[in-house]
Amino acid sequence: MRSRPPSCLRPAVATAAALISLAVAAPAHAAGEAVPERSSGVFLTVTGQDNAWVRGVLLDCVTQRPAHHPHAAEACAAIDKADGDFEALPAKSGICTKQYAPVTVSATGLHRGKPISWQKKYGNACEMEYSTGVVFRF
């Protein structure tokens, strides 16, 4: 009779099995064979306080694949204006409440061939909106 892992280990065993099956299914590349180019696009995320929620979207300003970002054209224009520097995104002035409900935003990937890896925390969504414009409005 086979013994089964304790119930507390079953999720870990299932996860490990899933990862192994993905690794086996992944295509192998022979030595010297060209590895496919990294896809273009920047993966944008907005995460709520204590990681209570997360939203993410891929923004690709080069290939113009079907946009998942509701303001893709304006977001690409803002990132272009900042030359891919998310610290230099065009900001708007306005008034926000002092309510502390932090959100963390991140951008990872390639924008017009330039590697991007950026993250910043704002005191609330209003501060984020004024600082980043439409880029993280999804």
Write structural notes for this entry.
The chain is α+β, with helices and mostly antiparallel strands and 138 residues long. It has one domain (35-132): 2-Layer Sandwich (Subtilisin Inhibitor), CATH 3.30.350.10. The chain has helices at 10-25, 72-81, 125-132; strands at 41-47, 54-59, 103-111, 114-122. A 4-stranded antiparallel β-sheet has the order 2-1-3-4. A hairpin with a 6-residue loop joins strand 1 and strand 2. The longest helix is centred in the N-terminal third of the chain and has 16 residues, at 10-25. 17% of the residues are buried.
Provide the structure class: alpha+beta
| Number of domain modules | 1
At CATH level 2, the architecture is 2-Layer Sandwich
Task: Using the coordinates shown, work out and report the CATH topology.
Answer: Subtilisin Inhibitor
In percent terms, what proportion of residues is strand?
A: 15-25%
Largest sheet: 4 strands, antiparallel
Average pLDDT over all residues = 79
Query: Low-confidence parts lasting 5 or more residues at pLDDT below 50?
Result: 2-38
Q: How do the strands line up in the largest sheet?
A: 2-1-3-4
What is the string of SSEs from the N terminus onward? Answer: HEEHEEH
The CATH superfamily turns out to be Subtilisin inhibitor-like
Considering DSSP H and I runs of 4 or more, what fraction of the residues is helical? 10-25%
CATH class: Alpha Beta
| DSSP summary, beta strand count | 4
